[in-house]
Amino acid sequence: VNLLLLEPAELSAEGHAILSDDRARHVIEVLRAKIGSELRVGRVGGPIGSARVESIEAGTITLACRFGDRTPPIPAVDLLLALPRPKVLARLWAQIAALGVGKVVLTNANKVERYYFDSHAVSPEHARHRLLEGLAQARDTRVPEVVVVKELKPFVEDELDAAFGDARRLIADAAYARSPIDAVRARKGRVVLAVGPEGGWSDYERDLLERQGFVGVGLGPRTLRSDTAVIALLGIVHEALR
Amino acid sequence: VNLLLLEPAELSAEGHAILSDDRARHVIEVLRAKIGSELRVGRVGGPIGSARVESIEAGTITLACRFGDRTPPIPAVDLLLALPRPKVLARLWAQIAALGVGKVVLTNANKVERYYFDSHAVSPEHARHRLLEGLAQARDTRVPEVVVVKELKPFVEDELDAAFGDARRLIADAAYARSPIDAVRARKGRVVLAVGPEGGWSDYERDLLERQGFVGVGLGPRTLRSDTAVIALLGIVHEALR
């Protein structure tokens, strides 16, 4: 944990917070904070700041926080992601948040099994918990917005503009040869990246996305697991945008 | 599994193989192969080919394999990786192999705990098993070479040339601003990428590596978990080399 994240509701008007959960345990046992120690804190959705440990007692800590003016910017990359297997998704949340994503739209696709949508890994509580873990790692406070879409076609045909604005649209698939570095550098600005399921987008889905302006990119001949592909692609797009 | 990998010792002179392990189960239950089905196979360390299922009986399959001439090239990226926590390393092997790495040197570093070296995740059997999983995913047959180094300094001072030849030397750390895309594109050819532990390389270690020609690169202000960083960096370097 490189940043201790506090929910706005946990902060008093004077900037005091009382914690007795995992975060308190982390501060006491891992960071070995004492009374008077200074910690880096962030207000979820808001600015970064610092906190002084005011008291430590029976696993409960009191913090006095001062926040700066600057809220981290919303990351410049969004994801349209075919819903991964629950086990893969559970592992992916924190990594997505750490790499930096503005919005994640999880969608059905031909090779997505229907039961994935009922898994615990998709639940807002689970997702938020894991996303905060990734933000704490990366020292960010902006929780990615998560949207779940059960039908790809109406979403792609009617809701893309509302969801992603004028972000440059890229679809990643083994069917395409163009490097995402070149596609991103051809026109800077926000990017939305469509990443298919294990086994790739279907011909129909690629066609559907291409007709709405998605430009195909690929990572070469090696077939990657969808979590590996998402992490590599987010790394590449962020670097190409820097 | 996109490629069924067979060890050379499992193949008769005529190219027959008899399997009754996880691979046989995968062929029967997941691929639902019948007698006469054709499968994509690879000889570990050798060429790709195809196999005809000759018999299926009580969980045992017999394959008749024909291999082409072409062995996949050794990937153009090597890793000098501060030994990750056992749980992280266990998850990383398959992803490293899938993304493509020629050689992995796992090393001690200031922020690496000594007990990591005793873990099951570092054992050659475990590593090979997981590496083959990643190769089967990516349709490759070249098992990355794995070397474990318990002291960083003598290795860096005396053994770099023997280990990595004239590969371009890059060190990744939050201390550096330069993008790996630009560093790689400045001079094409093999790359060796030094990735530090959770918490980064120490000042001493960065200095040691810089004195041996490692050029610093970074992924921006976000601090990543070491497995996330390795996957993102491998993706970026491979794309920049393409």
Task: Outline the structure in words.
Two copies of one chain form a homodimer. Chain A is α/β, with parallel strands linked by helices and 242 residues long. Helices cover 33% and strands 25% of the residues of chain A. Chain A has eight helices and eleven strands. Chain A has helices at 22-30, 86-99, 124-138, 152-158, 160-164, 180-185, 203-211, 226-241, and strands spanning 4-6, 16-19, 38-43, 48-57, 60-67, 77-82, 103-107, 145-149, 168-172, 191-195, 215-217. The first copy, chain A, has a six-stranded parallel β-sheet, sandwiched between helices. In chain A, strands 1-3-4-5-2 form a five-stranded mixed β-sheet. In chain A, strand 3 (38-43) and strand 4 form a beta hairpin. In chain A, helix 2 runs parallel beside helix 8 (226-241). Chain A is elongated. The mean pLDDT of chain A is 96. The interface between A and B is medium-sized, with 32 and 32 residues.
Brief sketch in words of this structure:
Chain A has 242 residues and is α/β, with parallel strands linked by helices. Chain A has helices at 22-30, 86-99, 124-138, 152-158, 160-164, 180-185, 203-211, 226-241, and strands at residues 4-6, 16-19, 38-43, 48-57, 60-67, 77-82, 103-107, 145-149, 168-172, 191-195, 215-217. The first copy, chain A, is elongated and about 60 Å long.
